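Notes from hallway chat w/ T.B., transcribed later so I don't forget. T.B. wanted the structure written out for a chain they're using in a teaching module, and asked if we could keep both sequence and structure tokens in one place. Agreed to drop them here.
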Amino acid sequence: MSVIVKPSRADDPRVLRSRAAAMDAARTLFLRKGHAGTTMEEIAAHAGITKRTLYNLFADKDALFTRIVAEVIAVAGAFARDLRDEFSALTTTAQVRTALDGLARRLALRVVSPDVVALRRLLIGEASAFPSLAEEYFDRAPRQVIEALADGFALLARRKLLRVPSPRRAASQFAYLAVGELLDRAMLVGSTPSRAQVLAWARDGVETFMARYGVRRS
């Protein structure tokens, strides 16, 4: 006897569309007005769904806020996992320089992108109301990337492709050299650097990093 498996409500295309619309609306309104200044009624109206539908999808505003931060954390986690694969494939000093140039560009473009900067500013503003969420974001986004960099630099040091006495310190320095003042200005002043500025800053950052940690061949 065959068994008919009914599709889960969570997989219903209409539910998926409504959830995506709610997430997009909440993200837009939270970044524009803050968590406290946004209501579920506004989110539902902005998403083009009923308030009842919104509450069927998310228990409350806090659940939506947490889900949005979780999505950003997931992107950072994927970035960190990819880093480990990239580092493991490096076997020559020429490959290291090319890889670090590409990594610095990707890292800088991501970190100073308007959506990431806006979310970081939002989390700072809401840290007192969501201390555990802010801590989770730090642990599983910036810190996870730094740890992946540190592991990669340690591997390259063992392979004699970099001179890195302290991989953790080198990882922090690499990250700051890649974005540095651009991120500070974006966070504090709200200015968005041009793509050309970001790429030039990242390129110079790698140059400085390699001057300190690169292997000198005689």
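Follow-up for T.B.: The radius of gyration is 21 Å. Might be a good example for the class.
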